[in-house]
Amino acid sequence: MKIDDDNRAVRSGEEDPGRRRFLAGLGVAAGSLIAIMAGLPVISYILLPVSRKMHRQWVSVGPADRFTVGETVLVSFENPSARPWAGVTGKTGAWVRRVGDSDFIAFVLNCSHLGCPVSWEATPKLFFCPCHGSVYYEDGTVAAGPAPFPLQRFRVRVRGEQVELQTRPLPFTETA
Amino acid sequence: MKLEKSLQWIDDRTGLVKQIEAIAAHPAAPGVKWKYVFGSAVLTAFIMQVVTGIGLLTTYVPSAGGAFESLRYITDKAPLGAFLRGMHFWGASMMVVLITAHVLRVFLMGSFKFPRELNWTSGVLLLATTLAMAFCGQIVRWDQNAVFGIVAAAKMAAHVPLIGPWLARFIIGGDVVGTYTLSRIFDLHVFVLPILLASLIGLHVHLVLRNGVSEPPVPGRGVDPATYRSDYRDMLRKEGVPFWPTVVLRDFTFAIGVVIVVLLLAWLIGPAKLDNPPDPSLINAHPRPDWYFWWLFALLALLPHSLENYFMVLTPLVIGLVLFSVPLVSNRGERHPARRPLAVAAVVFILSAIVALTVAGWNEDWSPRIDAPPLSAKIIGASSGPVYEGAMVFNKMGCLFCHTIEGHGGTRGPELTWIADRLTRDQMTLRIMNGVYNMPVFGRILSTRQTENLLDFLSTRNKSGFAKGQQQ
């Protein structure tokens, strides 16, 4: 009953429509303010890992004398910036080839097409991707399949006796 | 009496009892028969997914380092764990199948036309959200397949102009797949998307009740927005059948069937197999999505490579635009499929394409068969000399991964069992030395002697030569 009385009051023009509109606007503004105040920290928190650039670090993958010249071998290492609860997800792999005394090449495992891990076949000297059939030559250039780019490489250096790779982001996440 | 009194009391305080009674009693269009059961069956499947999901969450650990072990425990040790995972997995498949059937039914019967345009729009959003749920479900099954699945998704997103790399980082939660990746996909799968789905279902059901279930189409009787509503009301008054129990019972019968099928599949086949651990440094991987994305998986292998950049960005965009624009393009006129040949043709075309691509995705002909057993001496037809040496080149230099000879080998390239009947030695030389589309340049890889031996071997691959080889 009371509601009807109020409505009648509005309809009969006892309340100023301009004031009413202003109050309605104020309501929307207040609601938006609450949403922004509460939402901004949350959105920033979710976006933070997206904007943070990876800290590239040198990681040892073993003593140089464990690598034979001309051979391409799979190495794996713990990503030093992985969180403590990463488990095996914190590992990274690379195809490392010793080409000279202190000369090494290290390829990223991920196919340049959709990121599946490529396998090295030593006899034909080709990398094969299991997902969509991309093939790479021994220098990482594309031999066949949908791969758009050569295999990416890690930076490699020899420090003392140790072969070290520099960690790097997944190739396609780089804005450069 | 007591029950009636309590209901009255509740209704007095809430107003809900009368509302529910009104919904139950509302008349539905006559002829609403078995073709109309898919929508409610999707709802049944969704509820089942929520319930089995809640059950699984009592054991699943959503951390990058713990998820796989917890899944292994659920699957191998927890009482009923494999069964529950099976229900959740087959429930998801069922939901995808049913929502597709529902969309097809609505489209073919022209039910999206006036005044149900927004029923369709909310339905398209439900379809998209369901597929997103299905994909995220595959990722929270945090095995090797999941790791490379999310990498592939991020890689595809990276093709978007300007914001691509940012989008890719947003999807995996940084530069590399890891702790952030699983947690945010879990967040989507368990909170964000289900809440979105439930809200959209609420909206969709509201629209169905408001606009009424569409009556079965009659050829020649099109939709005219000016008169449709009053005609529909008249029809309901004259011939309407009560929603409860007539229509609902059919829904329930079908839903019981759906649940039984899911239970049977969970029992007989069980959950999706857990792949290797989610270790990005393992290479013995064979990543592939769950069956409902095999068509996309196949398309990504079979498209002309130069089109891929556009395809990855434009396809979802085009599919979305087409689906959304359906009721905008045609919201009046004929509803019966017999009078809408283009609509039927479009459905036939799209379904055939999806089925054909799904089969291709199942076969995976493009995947090099690295573990193919080598050609036997019997197939080679020689045990020494240049032909034998050439066969060894074929076995060892990767030819076998992609080419089949008498049932041995891969299927990426053409079968070579009778290659000498098709190509001359010169033509073979040209292909081997220079490579072709999807074949490496073997001139870079083989020595002259190896190439000659290989050609000697391949030249024996003809029908007469084969017969000779068999006689020896």
Q: Care to describe what's here?
A:
The complex is a heterodimer of chains A (176) and B (472). Chain A has a 4-stranded antiparallel sheet, with no helix packed on it. Chain A has a 4-stranded antiparallel sheet with strand order 5-6-7-8, with no helix packed on it. Chain A has helices at 2-11, 17-51; strands at residues 58-63, 72-78, 91-98, 104-108, 119-121, 126-128, 135-137, 142-144, 153-154, 156-159, 162-166. By secondary structure, chain A is α+β, with helices and mostly antiparallel strands. Chain A folds into 2 domains: 2-51; 58-173, Rieske Iron-sulfur Protein (3-layer Sandwich). The mean pLDDT of chain A is 89. Chain A has 2 helices and 11 strands, in the order ααβββββββββββ. Chain B has 472 residues and is mostly helical. Chain B folds into 2 domains: 23-363, Cytochrome Bc1 Complex, Chain C (Up-down Bundle), CATH 1.20.810; 377-471, Cytochrome Bc1 Complex, Chain D, domain 2 (Orthogonal Bundle). Helix content of chain B is 65%, strand content 2%. Chain B is built from 21 helices and 4 strands. Chain B has helices at 2-14, 16-25, 38-56, 67-76, 81-108, 117-140, 144-157, 164-172, 179-211, 228-239, 243-268, 294-302, 308-329, 341-363, 377-380, 385-396, 399-402, 419-422, 425-434, 448-459, 463-471; strands at residues 27-28, 241-242, 404-405, 408-409. The longest helix of chain B has 33 residues, at 179-211. The radius of gyration of chain B is 29 Å and the shape is elongated. The chains are: A alpha+beta (176), B mainly alpha (472). Chains A and B meet through helix 2, strand 2 and strand 3 of A and helix 7, helix 8 and helix 9 of B.
Strand portion of chain B: under 5%
Radius of gyration of chain B: 29 Å
Question: Rg of chain A, please?
Answer: 30 Å
3D shape of chain B: elongated
N to C succession of SSEs of chain B: HHEHHHHHHHHEHHHHHHHEEHHHH
Average predicted confidence as pLDDT of chain A: 89
CATH fold node name of the largest domain in chain B: Cytochrome Bc1 Complex, Chain C
Task: Give the rounded overall mean pLDDT of chain B.
Answer: 93
The CA-CA distance between the termini of chain B, in Å, is 96 Å
